[in-house]
TrEMBL record:
<dbReference type="InterPro" id="IPR001365">
    <property type="entry name" value="A_deaminase_dom"/>
</dbReference>
<keyword id="KW-0479">Metal-binding</keyword>
<protein>
    <recommendedName>
        <fullName>Adenine deaminase</fullName>
        <ecNumber>3.5.4.2</ecNumber>
    </recommendedName>
</protein>
<feature type="binding site">
    <location>
        <position position="275"/>
    </location>
    <ligand>
        <name>Zn(2+)</name>
    </ligand>
</feature>
<feature type="domain" description="Adenosine deaminase">
    <location>
        <begin position="9"/>
        <end position="324"/>
    </location>
</feature>
<feature type="binding site">
    <location>
        <position position="16"/>
    </location>
    <ligand>
        <name>Zn(2+)</name>
    </ligand>
</feature>
<keyword id="KW-0378">Hydrolase</keyword>
<feature type="binding site">
    <location>
        <position position="14"/>
    </location>
    <ligand>
        <name>Zn(2+)</name>
    </ligand>
</feature>
<dbReference type="InterPro" id="IPR032466">
    <property type="entry name" value="Metal_Hydrolase"/>
</dbReference>
<dbReference type="Pfam" id="PF00962">
    <property type="entry name" value="A_deaminase"/>
</dbReference>
<feature type="active site" description="Proton donor">
    <location>
        <position position="197"/>
    </location>
</feature>
<keyword id="KW-0862">Zinc</keyword>
<dbReference type="InterPro" id="IPR006330">
    <property type="entry name" value="Ado/ade_deaminase"/>
</dbReference>
<comment type="function">
    <text>Catalyzes the hydrolytic deamination of adenine to hypoxanthine. Plays an important role in the purine salvage pathway and in nitrogen catabolism.</text>
</comment>
<dbReference type="InterPro" id="IPR028892">
    <property type="entry name" value="ADE"/>
</dbReference>
<comment type="similarity">
    <text>Belongs to the metallo-dependent hydrolases superfamily. Adenosine and AMP deaminases family. Adenine deaminase type 2 subfamily.</text>
</comment>
<feature type="binding site">
    <location>
        <position position="276"/>
    </location>
    <ligand>
        <name>substrate</name>
    </ligand>
</feature>
Length: 324
C-alpha cells in the first residue's frame, strides 16, 4: 500500500515552507549566516520537538526560522522541500509563508518572495511539480500591520495565489483581519485561513463569514457545531486537515481518535496535508501511510481525498484536468 500511496499523484494545500526546515539545513544556514543556535547537535534540535500545544510549537518554529536571511536561503529551503516532496509523489504544492515573521527580524520582503518564486520555477522545470504561493498574515499581530505588509508586497501581488491567516489562534479571532482579506479580494486574490485547530468552531464560522475564505485550514473542531457542519457540507468548503500535526500539537490524543473519519462520514470536503513536516514527524506520504494504518482506508478513500485537493487547488485548469 505504501508504494501505491507514493505513486498516487498528491496535492499538498497546507504547507508552511518555514516548517520544512530540517535541523541539518538549520545548522548549515546558521553557519552560512553567522547565527548561533541554542543547540549542540541535530539530535538536540530533534529532541526539543516535543510539544504541548500550538504555542509551544510556534516558539521553536519562529526561533528556527531565524537562520533564514537571504533569497538564497529561502531558495535552498524550498528546493530541499521539493526534493522530498518528489520522493513522496507530490505533484502540486501550495507553499504558505509568513513575511511578517521575517520583516520583524530585518529580512526584507524580496528575500522570501524572490527565493520562493525562483524555487517554484525550478521545481516545475526539474521535477514537473506545480505550485502556488500563499502570503500568510500572523493573527497574533496587529491587523493594521498585516494590511501595510500586504500593500508593501504590491510588486508581487500578481504572483500571489492567495492570502492566508496563521499563528496562535486562541483569543485571536479571524474577523480582525477582514480589511486585508477584502483588499486582497478586490485585487482578485482569494483567501484561506487557519480556523478550528486550537480555536473553537465559532472561529470557523467567523472566518467564513467575515474573511470570505474559499478553504479552511484544519477546521477539525467544526464537529462541535452541527449547524456549521451542515453549512460546510452544503457548500463543500474544503478543509485542509493535517493528521500528524494534530497529534503532535495534541489537538487529538492519538491518530486513532482523530475526527477525520467523522469528518468524512459527515460528507465534508476533506484533504490530507503535512503542515510543518520538519517539526511534526513526516511529510505527505507519512501522513497518508499513518491514516491508512489508523483508519484502514482503501485506495478509493485516498483517491477521493486527492481529488478533493486537486479540485480545491489554485492551479491552471489545464493542470487540474491532467491531475484529475
Ligand atoms: C502553524 Cl500548525 C500551525 N498552526 C498555526 N499557525 C502555524 N504556523 C505554522 N504552523
Ligand atoms: Zn498550518
Amino acid at each position: 500500500m505504501t508504494t501505491w500511496l507514493r505513486e498516487l499523484p498528491k496535492a499538498e494545500l497546507h504547507l508552511h515552507i518555514e516548517g520544512t526546515l530540517e535541523p541539518e539545513l538549520m545548522f548549515a544556514l546558521a553557519d552560512r549566516n553567522g547565527v548561533t543556535l541554542p543547540y549542540d547537535s541535530v539530535e538536540a534540535v530533534r529532541a526539543a520537538y516535543d510539544f504541548e500545544d500550538l504555542p509551544s510549537f510556534l516558539n521553536l518554529y519562529y526561533q528556527g526560522m531565524g537562520v533564514l536571511h537571504t533569497q538564497a536561503d529561502f531558495f535552498d529551503l524550498a528546493m530541499a522541500y521539493f526534493a522530498r516532496a518528489r520522493e513522496d509523489g507530490v505533484a502540486h504544492v501550495e507553499l504558505s509563508f509568513d513575511p511578517q515573521a521575517h520583516l520583524v527580524r530585518g529580512v526584507p520582503l524580496e528575500a522570501p518572495f524572490e527565493g520562493l518564486l525562483a524555487a517554484c520555477r525550478e521545481a516545475d522545470s526539474r521535477y514537473g511539480i506545480s505550485s502556488a504561493l500563499i502570503m500568510s498574515f500572523l493573527r497574533d499581530r496587529d491587523p493594521v500591520e498585516a494590511l501595510e505588509v500586504f500593500e508593501q508586497a504590491a510588486p508581487w501581488h500578481s504572483m500571489i495565489d492567495a492570502v492566508g491567516l496563521d499563528s496562535a489562534e486562541r483569543d485571536h479571532p479571524p474577523g480582525r483581519f477582514a480589511k486585508v482579506f477584502a483588499r486582497a479580494r478586490a485585487l482578485g486574490i482569494p483567501g484561506v485561513a487557519h480556523a478550528g485547530e486550537e480555536g473553537s468552531a465559532a472561529y470557523i464560522r467567523e472566518a467564513w463569514e467575515t474573511l470570505e475564505v474559499c478553504r479552511i485550514d484544519h477546521g477539525v473542531r467544526c464537529l462541535e457545531d452541527a449547524d456549521l457542519v451542515a453549512m460546510l457540507r452544503e457548500r463543500q468548503i474544503p478543509l485542509t486537515v493535517c493528521p500528524l500535526s494534530n497529534v503532535k500539537l495534541k489537538v487529538t490524543p492519538t491518530l486513532t481518535e482523530h475526527p477525520l473519519p467523522a469528518l468524512r462520514e459527515a460528507g465534508l470536503n476533506v484533504t490530507l496535508n503535512s503542515d510543518d513536516p520538519a517539526y511534526f514527524g513526516g511529510g505527505m506520504l507519512d501522513n497518508y501511510v499513518a491514516c491508512h494504518d489508523a483508519f484502514g482506508w482503501t485506495r478509493d478513500d485516498f483517491i477521493d481525498m486527492t481529488r478533493n485537493a486537486v479540485q480545491a487547488a489554485f492551479m491552471a485548469e489545464e493542470r487540474r484536468e491532467a491531475l484529475l
